[in-house]
Amino acid sequence: MLIAFAVAACVATAIVHVSMVFLSVAPPNIVSQRYEGRISTWVYPYFEQNWRLFAPDPEGARRTVLARTATTSPDGTRQVSGWSDLSAIDASAVRHNAFPSHVNQNMLRRAWSAYLDSHGTSDESDSDRARIIQRYLLNIAAQRAARDHRSFDAIQLRVVTTPIASPVRKADGSRLPQPRSESRSLPWWQVTSHDN
Question: 0.90 cut: is pTM over it?
Answer without folding.
Answer: no
